[in-house]
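Exercise 3.2. Students should predict the tertiary structure of the chain below and write it as structure tokens, then compare their answer with the key that follows.

Predict this chain's 3D structure.
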Amino acid sequence: MSHASQKFHVRLGLGRLEGLMTKQQARSWGDRNIPSDLKSAGFSTCVFESCPEIHGALFLRISYGKSCPSR
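Answer key:
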């Protein structure tokens, strides 16, 4: 099974969403639920895959950020 089709627990802020999701499902959820103030300020959904050795578990994290322009 590839990582693209694997389902993981999903964390958002200090909480955790119910059920398991693929990375694409987590990105879609984040896009549908981005706060309007962040969206109007140019933020977009970012999905991060954790590393068990560093973070202690394997999960996806939804966050919102801006891309830095290339120079």
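Discussion points: Residues 8-65 form one domain. Helices lie at 23-33, 36-40, 52-55.
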